[in-house]
Write a structure and sequence with these properties.
- It is built from 8 helices and no strands.
- The chain is mainly α and 185 residues long.
């Protein structure tokens, strides 16, 4: 019979040493991002580092131009926050880069169906939600982004990201709800 431990490790992406290294880095980055939802003081730093690791993962391991491009947008969004760019500048830069990226993705044939579009919009929700933080609706936008990524991960059978995005979406809803109770804008 099959070894259940081996089956679980393969399911999680740890079938080879190369896969194990990249997937461990991606999981650690994603967990850091989830922790960042709750740690206001380190949020932007954890998001930016996590998105940077996930961008490298998408470029060098997945070879996925959609995830590579959009994770890079999240890194830029995080860097703008770390540099304390004004909201007007940050949103202007993000809108310009997003329109440019989508033109390349659409004309390059990367966005090919409703699911790749949903996944891309999920990642954009996170990029723009980060730009809007600490306003509470930034958390709601990131939660919606997480839900879109849950659907995309389900369709492409990326189970770990399916489960991690559930945790990410719930964490953002929880922070949004807590801030709503306190009446923060």
């Amino acid at each position: 019979g099959d070894n259940p431990v081996q089956t679980v490790l393969e399911f999680l992406g740890f079938a080879t040493a190369t896969n194990a290294g990249w997937n461990a880095a991606a999981y650690a980055a994603f967990i850091g991002i989830i922790v960042g939802v709750f740690l206001e003081r380190y949020r932007n730093l954890l998001y930016t580092i996590g998105a940077g690791v996930l961008a490298l993962y998408a470029i060098f391991f997945l070879h996925n131009p959609l995830f590579s491009t959009l994770q890079t947008l999240i890194v830029i969004s995080g860097l703008l926050q770390l540099m304390r760019a004004s909201k007007r500048v940050a949103i202007s830069v993000m809108v310009f880069l997003t329109v440019t990226a989508y033109l390349f993705l659409l004309f390059g044939g990367t966005i090919t169906d409703v699911w790749s579009l949903a996944g891309s919009l999920g990642l954009l929700g996170i990029a723009f939600g980060l730009t809007i933080l600490p306003k509470r609706h930034g958390f709601l936008i990131m939660a919606v982004g997480g839900v879109l990524l849950i659907a995309y991960a389900f369709v492409v059978s990326a189970w770990v990201f399916f489960f991690l995005n559930i945790v990410f979406a719930v964490a953002n809803v929880k922070v949004w709800s807590k801030q709503s109770e306190r009446g923060q804008r």
